[in-house]
Amino acid sequence: MADTASATTPIIIPEVIAVSDFAAALGLPVTKVIGELMRNGVMATINEQIDFDTAAIIGADLGFEIEAEAAPEPEVRAAKVKLAEGEGENRPPIVTVMGHVDHGKTSLLDAIRTTTVAAKESGGITQHIGAYQVKRADRWITFLDTPGHEAFSALRQHGARMTDVAVIVVAADDGVKPQTKEAIRHAQEAGVKLVVAINKVDKEGADPVRVRQELTELGLQPEDWGGSTVTVDVSAKSGEGIEKLLDMVLLVADIEDLRARPDGPSEGVIIESHLDAGRGPVASVLVQNGQLRVGDYLVAGATYAKVRSLGDYRGRRITIANPGMPAVVTGFKAVPAFGDVYRTETGEKVAREASAASARHLQAKSLGVKKIDASQLTAAIHAGNVKELNVVVKADVQGSLESLHEQLAKLRNDEVAVNIVSSAVGDISESDIAFAKTAGAILIGFNVGMSSSLKAIANRDKVAVRLYKVIYELTDDLREGLEGMLAPEIVETVVGELEIMGVFKTTKTAVVCGGKVTKGRIAPKETMRIMRKKELLGTGMLSNLQRDKQDAREVFEGEMCGMSVTTTVAIEIGDTLEFYTTESKARTLDA
Ligand code: GDP
Questions:
Q1: Atom of ligand 1 nearest to the CA of 236
Q2: Which of 183, 300, 401, 578 would disulfide-bridge 529, Cβ 3.0–4.6 Å?
């Protein structure tokens, strides 16, 4: 395999390396390395970057031992959520609410908010910062607004966990649904404690006992049935059971003995972010360890901030945010991403350098290394045939944008796909319309506004603009759009068969003949396949049909008939005509 002398000492290379640098490191001509890459299905040119895994395989094929450079740690690491026993101080539990659509997640979050907030404060709680806190029996509980599974998947990428307890909402009148099971699985995989809220118990047809049975079937036996799953009957509408639910959340959290380090550098997670017209980049953070203070320098992903102001979930200014608290932070240089972890640094220089290193690291990770295996190659060749529905997406906050990206990526099959040509946080602007026009794209706004003057411009420029507040309405519409782009399926049905018993006249374009219908029925204008000893000779159309020398509209199995067939095939005695109809059927993305 290798015609190069095997290196005795390993070659050390970084996480990503340009093909030319890699060749230099190996002491080989670049063409040889490119050739070896191609043999392994990697199409990379001299200046392109390859990742370590690729380099290691190619290196080994060429007779070298490749080792990775000791990895620098530019990425801000996830906060250590659990401390050693006795270490740290108690902190509020972080709770997320999950469950099947329409089972009442939003209503429950609202009900918890309103039942625990004094009326005089209610004016301040409407702002959306990604989380809020409630007080029960003198203890704080932090609720995340982010749909639980999105929070889980975004954070898993960073190796972080931010939730302690998942409240699984099941509507008592509807029972456990596939999405309920998925929510339970996500929570279990994330190692999160469960509390099941059996919601809508006020409704007629509510059957909390049946829900408990269904939970038992899933291996979640309710506590009151001798198992260990905490279930609470609630009604987000009447408020019934809400306080008990909070007590249960605290009880379950207590088993976990949740603690945080109260001092030292502050660490946490970005739970919401957007660009504010007046305040610049704004992010909500969930503090996990250490106190975050006004004036601190913090690094989050590829950006950093000198904390200019801190606000609590009610929008009130605070100077310190403690572990377990959500807080709104201003002072960022750029909008950090949802799910990024943050850490405070000792000064601006350190913070700036750490964020720059992180930016480089992210860039290296996103470098398109084109690793193509056989199946992908076929896919790539066919890619020219994939019809794309171009969209320009604007959303209120970074979190929404991320989940839109995730959802829209799923809307595809081999023939059609959604292509996001551009996406950003913020209201729809005139340049978005111009861009959508150039790109031939639909302009989609999620939880964002649009002035009537802009609507007029979009109208004039014939740019389709759709505004949504609910993600599944958006995905449903796009799915419908894609399905409309799918070539319809042609469904063929064989309706009858006839055996030729006589041929009376044959011209270049037609045959006058007679025979017996051996299966089904036949009728004029129907198309047919002409078969001789099971071999297909060609096709034809029945132009004229007679029974007993009379024009017939249909002839059935067992009956004899005479006919004229439009075809170029010279039909002979003994041939079989197979009659069929076709119907075009609209297709769906999944079929
Ligand atoms: P989500 O999709 O899980 O966020 O569900 P929503 O909170 O939007 O609720 C779906 C529907 O159920 C809405 O029409 C709510 O008004 C209704 N709903 C939610 N909770 C209750 C409840 O406890 N009782 C009744 N009767 N209706 C409820």
A1: 23
A2: 578
- Cα separation, 144 vs 288, in Å, equals 14
The residues, ordered by sequence, that sit 6+ positions from 166 with a Cβ below 8 Å of its Cβ are 95, 96, 97, 98, 148, 183, 186, 187, 190, 192, 193, 194, 195
CA of 101 to the centre of ligand 1 (A): 9
CB 179 less than 6 A from any atom of ligand 1: no
Q: Tell me the CATH number of domain 385-485, given options 3.40.390.30, 3.40.50.10050, 2.70.70.10, 3.40.50.970.
A: 3.40.50.10050
Pocket test for ligand 1, best of 103, 106, 107, 110 (most atoms within 8 A of CB): 107
Q: What is the pLDDT of residues 112-171, one digit of tens each?
A: 988 765 444 444 444 567 888 999 988 999 998 765 555 555 555 454 567 889 999 999
Ligand 1 pocket, mutate which of 96, 101, 102, 182 (most atoms under 8 A from CB): 102
Collect all residues with Cβ–Cβ distance below 8 Å to 30 and sequence separation of at least 6.
Answer: 19, 20, 23, 46
What is the number of alpha carbons within 13 Å of residue 536 lying toward its C-beta?
A: 7
Residue nearest to atom 9 of ligand 1 (CA): 104
pLDDT tens for 205-261 read 999 999 999 999 999 999 989 899 999 999 999 999 999 999 999 999 988 888 889
Atom of ligand 1 nearest to the CA of 199: 23
Two domains, one topology: 267-362 and 489-585 = yes
Q: Could you report the per-residue pLDDT of 345-376, keeping only the tens digit for each?
A: 998 988 888 888 777 666 555 443 333 333 33
Name the residue ranges covered by the structural domains of the chain.
4-68, 89-260, 267-362, 385-485, 489-585
